[in-house]
Structure formats: C-alpha cells, structure tokens
Design goal:
Helices cover about 85% and strands about 0% of the residues. The longest helix is centred in the N-terminal third of the chain and has 40 residues, at about 35-70. It has one domain (about 1-50, about 80-250). It is mainly α. The chain contains 13 helices and no strands.
Amino acid sequence: ISAIVFSVLLTLIVEKTVLPLDRMDCALAEKNLQLEVQGKNNELFKDEDKKGSNLVWIMPVSIITGLLAGIFLRSVISPSVTNSFFTAALIVLYICVGISQGANKEVFFYLKRIGFKVVLISIAILLGSLIGGIVSGIILKLPLYISVTSAAGMSFYSITGAYMTQQYGIEIGTYGFIVNVMREFFTVLAMPLLIKISLGAPIAGGAAGNMDTMLAPITKFVGIRLSLVTLITGTILTFIVPLILPVVSVIFR
C-alpha cells in the first residue's frame, strides 16, 4: 500500500508542476489521436480483459499445483534442482520481456506523438515505489532488501517472485510475489478513490501492470485518450523492473 501511496503522491507532484494530464487529454483530442488508434485500442482492451479473466484461475491453479508437487515430490526434488528451475524460469521471463519490448513498436510512435515528458510519470512511479518500500520496511521491521526489492517489482509479480525466490529462497520469493499481486488488487479496489485525486493516480497505482492486465480497468476511469499514457508508462516500467531488481538488491543488502 505504501508503494501505491508514494507513487500517487509523486505522480501528483509531476501533474501539478510539469505534466498536467487534463491538458494532455485535451491536446490529444485536438490531435485526433484517439480516432487514429481507437480501433486498435478496443481490440487491445478485449484481449486484456480476456487475459485478466484467465489469470483469475491460472494463478491459483498454478500455485496449488506447485504446492501439491512440492509436498508429494519433496523426497525426490533436491534444492539444487529447484534452484535450477527458478534460474531457467527467470531467464525465460527476461527473454520474454525483451521480446515484448522489442515487438511493441507502436509505443514508440505514441511516445513521439505525446511527448517525452510522459516519461516523468514512470520516474515518479519508480521513485514512489522505492520510497514506499523503504517506509514499509521500517514500519514492519523487515530487512530493506526484502521490502524495497518487493516494492521495486511495481506489480510485475511474475518476474519479481521468480527473482526473489532465486536470490533469497521460496519464503521471501512468495512474499515478493504476493506484495505485487496485492498492489494490483488494491489499485483496482481503490480506483474510484484514486481517480478523485487526479487522472494520474490510477496510472501510478497500476505501475508496470499498465502494460497488460491493468490497462483495461484503468482506461475505464482515465478515458480512451489517456490510455496511451497508461500503456507507455506500463511499457517503460515493465522494461525497468528486470534491470532495477538486481540493483536494488545490491544497494539494500
């Protein structure tokens, strides 16, 4: 929750100083950018809604399956084998992130049309998440490398959970996974409140999830034109997460 709070706070500061999203919304309307991409966005939102609904059962089924496998195969699977699996999974996740970023050419087109100042929102969310991780670590009396690394995942729960498990073990990895899943959950839950704070607040809450699962629900609140800002922000943060996790782990270790 603290990561969401500080991300929203810093994003609000960016909005009030250098990047007012309400004016950007009007500017995008004048450029008629909505009409240019509306068909693609509608198709994209359908895909993301379907993806989000699939995750409702994919995630718990996968976790339960893994739990049962661990219980019944405990005597067969050694810790070294498990670590090898996590390392392989992490490599696959990093490759998939690279592929998704490289294939997403439209984001760079939108970035040029909207303006590079929109990157400031991503920076605000990143810094807010790190500050939130520090604050939560102090309040909960957790080691900062755990709390800050978890917060640095910015709702990218799959890669955060895999990375922290590979680095620190299954207990800490599970913690990192749950923290980032709950970030999305609390963002969706608080969406009616966040939109009253500012247009950027829901975007700040969604963080890296804005690229996929959070894109559709956030767009319903911020509007079709600012969905471009949401998508760009999520894409940037999704690219940053795999790079920032090792750095944060070293700094706060």
